[in-house]
Design a protein that fits this description.
Order of helices and strands: EEEEEHHHEEEHHHHHHHEEEHEHEH
Number of helices: 13
Strand order of the largest sheet: 1-2-3-4-5-6-8-7
Shape: globular
Radius of gyration: 29 Å
Largest sheet: 8 strands, mixed
Distance between the termini: 16 Å
Number of strands: 13
């Protein structure tokens, strides 16, 4: 059971003290704020406890999952899981060898799936606590987060190891479920209120028509409101009938109720976008080939518009840029030829797969990772396609009878790989693509995040942030 935050402060802060135990071992002790303890306890120092340990030799940070805002302040967050160890790598590992600061070290080490503000305690954020529950069912007392070892469980040692990439995949899975449930809950609340409000107004005599006197069209509309987001709520015949009514009366609806028609269109686009996000995530996890990715982009060309950040239209999929016509007959085939819908300036899009390596795993020099052979070859491929298109554009326009395309400055875009995990690898990749002047490089997970951001922006009802109250299972405001 959690206790509520005090009304006169958004986030009272406790104090964190670092004690050096030996040359390479440090411990952090946290004292909760006065507001977190009961009114008759006036000395927070009595609740001071060790909550983390930094081991420079092992290059690890160990945290103790605990609660600050609870009936018993500073109590263990979980019944069995007593420590979470983060193995440092990349920049965080090197930072530890310098004049490091504990708060900075924590912020760069603890993944987003965990609480990063010590004033709320340590542990999984509220939406991801099921991970801890599953681990505890296996008898796990120690969890290790690493970028070096595979995900595994040692039952005899009560220890579980989770690779950082798997942890990120778990987060994406939970976020997808949350996104779907928020949309479903918002629509169910609205539909339930529609029914309740109709009944209340009807009982006061403010509604002229009783449900039994509604016309067929009005009845279909009412059924659609209450059942469209309830599983098995409307039969296929009812759905078809409702769509028929809309199609036949589209012009009239637009004249009399334009906002409702726009809202229906937005609802349909949200459903389509949600399904696209889910499919995108599944395809990344399954590691499908280039052909399936090309098909997805062909069916959803607006993804390419998001990649460019400018209005584009698809001119030709599998376009021959080195032959006589766009539709074939050439040696060089680009995955997509697109154009700016305003200026007609063309661009070439080449699609690889999320499995494409972007940088070499082994550093070329200290902390510098060179672009992989796959990435370098893909960039060269796009540049070659750009060159051939500019060279053959006049012949292509005449032979294809496609005159509304221009090659003022043909831009290349490459969609490949996933953002590298390590800090050094990320830095090296950003260096490379920032200096790739004529080929814009975008990763698949970056496109996925763009889709998710668009979905969140389009959501009609966004649930407000929850303030912890007595009886909450968790005290985290997430």
């Amino acid at each position: 059971m959690a206790i509520p935050y005090p009304s006169d402060s958004l986030q009272p802060e406790g104090s964190l003290e670092v004690e050096q135990i030996s040359d390479n071992l440090y411990r952090g002790y946290f004292t909760p704020p006065l507001a977190a303890i009961t009114s008759y306890e006036k000395d927070p120092s009595g609740y001071k406890r060790c909550v983390l340990e930094v081991d420079k030799t092992a290059k690890t940070i160990t945290i103790v999952p605990f609660r600050v805002w609870s009936v018993i302040p500073m109590s263990n967050r979980y019944s069995k899981l007593g420590e979470i160890v983060f193995e440092l790598s990349g920049y965080a590992e090197r930072y530890l060898e310098e004049d490091w600061d504990l708060e900075s070290l924590l912020s760069m080490t603890i993944p987003e799936i965990f609480t990063q503000d010590i004033n709320y305690g340590f542990g999984f954020k509220k939406h991801y606590t099921q991970i801890a529950s599953i681990l505890e069912e296996l008898g796990i007392k120690k969890l290790v987060i690493t970028a070096k070892e595979k995900t595994s469980v040692e039952t005899a040692k009560h220890t579980a190891t989770i690779h950082e990439s798997d942890l990120e995949r778990f987060r994406r899975t939970v976020d997808t479920i949350i996104r779907r449930s928020q949309s479903l809950t918002a629509n169910l609340k609205r539909d339930a209120l529609n029914v309740e409000l109709f009944a209340a107004l009807d009982s006061t005599g403010m509604v002229s028509k009783a449900p039994g006197k509604l016309s067929k069209e009005e009845f279909v509309a009412l059924v659609g409101k209450t059942n469209r987001f309830v599983e098995n709520g409307a039969t296929p015949a009812e759905q078809k009938e409702a769509l028929t009514v809309i199609r036949k009366n589209a012009n009239k609806i637009f004249e009399q109720q334009p906002q409702e028609l726009i809202k229906l269109k937005n609802d349909l686009e949200l459903v389509n976008l949600e399904q696209l996000i889910e499919k995108f995530e599944v395809m990344i996890e399954k590691g499908v080939g280039e052909a399936q990715w090309q098909n997805l982009f062909q069916q959803n060309p607006f993804i390419i518009s998001m990649a460019f950040g400018i209005p584009v239209v698809n001119v030709q999929g599998q376009a021959s840029v080195g032959g006589r016509r766009l539709s074939g007959g050439g040696e060089k085939i680009a995955d997509f030829l697109v154009k700016n819908s305003l200026s007609n300036n063309t661009a070439i899009v080449e699609i690889k797969t999320p499995a494409t390596n972007l940088v070499y795993a082994k550093a070329y020099r200290s902390s510098v990772h060179g672009p992989s052979q796959e990435l370098s070859a893909a960039v060269s491929q796009v540049l070659d396609q750009v060159y051939l298109l500019q060279k053959e554009i006049n012949n292509i326009k005449v032979n294809s009878k496609t005159y509304n395309i221009e090659t003022y400055h043909v831009h290349g875009i490459l969609i490949a790989g996933l953002t590298p995990q390590g800090t050094d690898e990320q830095k090296s990749f950003e260096y490379f693509r920032a200096n790739s002047k004529n080929v814009q490089i975008i990763t698949f997970d970056e496109l996925l995040e763009k889709l998710k951001s668009l979905y969140q922006f389009l959501l009609p009802d966004k649930p407000p942030a929850k303030t912890p109250t007595n009886g909450d299972e968790d005290d985290l405001p997430f």
